[in-house]
Design a protein that fits this description.
The chain is α/β, with parallel strands linked by helices. 51% of the residues lie in helices and 13% in strands. It starts with 13 loop residues before the first helix and ends with a helix.
C-alpha cells in the first residue's frame, strides 16, 4: 500500500442510479444540442439583402435618418445577416413613388409619409396626419392600443404592403408667409404650398393650394410665385432659409398635429422572412421612431430661437381662421365618409379616440404644460 486512504465501494441505490442517468443524459443532450444548434440557426438566419427607398432627402437628416436607423438596428441585431441599404429620395425611386415601388416589388421596403398618396386614397392619410387630428402621444396610443393598427393593416392589404410606424415629427408649424394673415378674408387667393389634405380644406376658404417639391420652395417664395409655404418645423425649416423671403412664421400646423412616418414593406417579401427577422423589423422600426421623436424635441427649440434672432416673426393663426378651417375640415370628412366605407371606418375610430383623449390631456398634460410655460417665462 502507498499510504493513500482506502475508499470502500458504495452500493448505488435506485435513486442514485436515476440521478446518475439524468446527469449523463443532460450532458449528452447539451453536447448534442451544441452540435445541432449552429446549423439549425444558420438555416433559420439566411443572408438577406434589401433596398429601402426614402421619400426624404439626406439633407433633412432628422426625418431621413429614420430609414437609416432601421437598417442599422436590423444589421446589428442579426449580425449583418439581414442587411438593408437606405437610399435618399430620387436615387432609386422618385420621392412620391415609394408606395408604388414597394407595392409592385421594385424595392423591398420604403420610408415615407402616407399623406403623399392622398390622390390614390385619402384614407391613407390616417397613417400619417389629418386636419385637426391626433398629436404624437395620442397617435402612438391609437395605433398601438386603440385598434388603429388593425384598421391600417386592413387598408394596406389592397396595396400589398405591411406598414410599421417609423417616426414622428411632433406638431408641425403652420408655415412661412410673405404677408400677415389677420382675417379669414386674407386667405382668399393666397397661393400656398401645403399638403394635399390641408389644401382640400383650405381651398374652400379661397386658398390656391400648390404642390411643390421641397427644393423648389425657397425660389418660389423668393420670386413671388407662391405667397406662403409649409414644410415641417424649425429644425428643418431653418436649413432652407425660408425666413429670409417670407418672415411671418405661423403656428400651429393644424393639418399635422403630428406626422407619423411609416416603413412600408412588400407583403410577399415580408411573408418570406423568418419569423425572428419579422420581429427584428418591428423592433427596429420602434427604436427608429423613438430616436426621431427625441431628435425633433431636442432640436426644434434651439432652431426656433435662432430663427427668431435672425428676423423670423412668430405669429399664431387668428382664432377665426382656426375655427373656419375646423368647420371646413369637418365638411370634407363628412363628404369623404359618405363616399368610402373604409375611410368612414378609419375616421370613426380615429376621431372617437381623439375625442376621448383630449379631455384627459387637457386635465393632465395640458394643465401641467400651461403652468410650466408661465412659471418658467415670467
Amino acid at each position: 500500500m502507498d499510504g493513500a486512504p482506502y475508499s470502500y465501494p458504495v452500493e448505488e441505490t435506485p435513486n442514485m442510479q436515476r440521478r446518475s442517468f439524468l446527469k449523463k443524459a443532460t450532458l449528452g443532450a447539451a453536447a448534442g444540442g451544441a452540435a445541432l444548434a449552429a446549423p439549425v440557426f444558420a438555416q433559420e438566419s439566411p443572408a438577406i439583402s434589401w433596398r429601402l427607398a426614402s421619400s426624404f432627402p439626406r439633407s433633412a437628416d432628422a426625418i431621413y435618418s429614420g430609414g437609416e436607423n432601421v437598417a442599422k438596428y436590423i444589421s446589428e441585431a442579426t449580425g449583418g445577416k439581414f442587411s438593408i441599404r437606405a437610399f435618399p429620395a430620387g436615387e432609386i425611386v422618385p420621392a412620391l413613388a415609394v408606395l408604388d415601388g414597394v407595392q409592385n416589388g421594385t424595392i423591398e421596403c420604403g420610408h415615407t409619409a402616407s399623406y403623399y398618396y392622398f390622390g390614390k386614397n385619402p384614407a391613407l392619410c390616417f397613417d400619417s396626419a389629418v386636419p385637426f387630428g391626433l398629436n404624437t402621444r395620442q397617435m402612438n396610443a391609437w395605433v398601438n392600443h386603440g385598434g388603429g393598427m388593425d384598421l391600417l393593416r386592413e387598408m394596406y392589404k389592397q396595396f400589398n404592403i405591411v406598414n410599421f410606424p417609423c417616426g414622428f415629427t411632433g406638431t408641425q408649424m403652420g408655415g412661412w408667409f410673405r404677408k400677415e394673415v389677420k382675417t379669414v378674408e386674407d386667405l382668399n387667393g393666397l397661393k400656398f404650398r401645403c399638403s394635399a389634405f390641408a389644401g382640400e380644406v383650405l381651398s374652400r376658404l379661397g386658398v390656391v393650394p400648390q404642390q411643390i417639391a421641397g427644393g423648389d420652395i425657397y425660389p418660389s417664395l423668393e420670386k413671388g410665385t407662391i405667397d406662403a409655404a409649409e414644410w415641417i418645423g424649425p429644425y428643418d425649416d431653418e436649413k432652407l432659409g425660408f425666413h429670409r423671403v417670407a418672415p411671418y412664421y405661423y403656428f400651429p400646423g393644424w393639418w399635422e398635429g403630428t406626422l407619423q412616418v411609416s416603413l412600408y414593406v412588400n407583403q410577399d417579401k415580408y411573408n418570406a422572412l423568418p419569423k425572428h427577422y419579422q420581429a427584428v423589423l418591428a423592433q427596429a422600426s420602434a427604436m427608429a421612431t423613438n430616436q426621431m421623436i427625441a431628435t425633433y424635441d431636442a432640436e426644434n427649440p434651439k432652431a426656433l430661437k435662432r430663427l427668431i434672432s435672425e428676423g423670423a416673426k412668430l405669429r399664431a393663426f387668428p382664432k377665426a381662421v382656426m375655427e373656419a378651417s375646423y368647420n371646413e375640415a369637418n365638411k370634407v370628412y363628412a363628404e369623404m365618409s359618405a363616399k368610402d366605407p373604409l375611410f368612414k371606418k378609419l375616421y370613426d375610430s380615429y376621431m372617437s379616440f381623439r375625442d376621448h383623449e383630449i379631455p384627459w390631456f387637457r386635465v393632465g398634460e395640458g394643465s401641467f404644460d400651461q403652468f410650466m410655460a408661465s412659471a418658467t417665462h415670467r
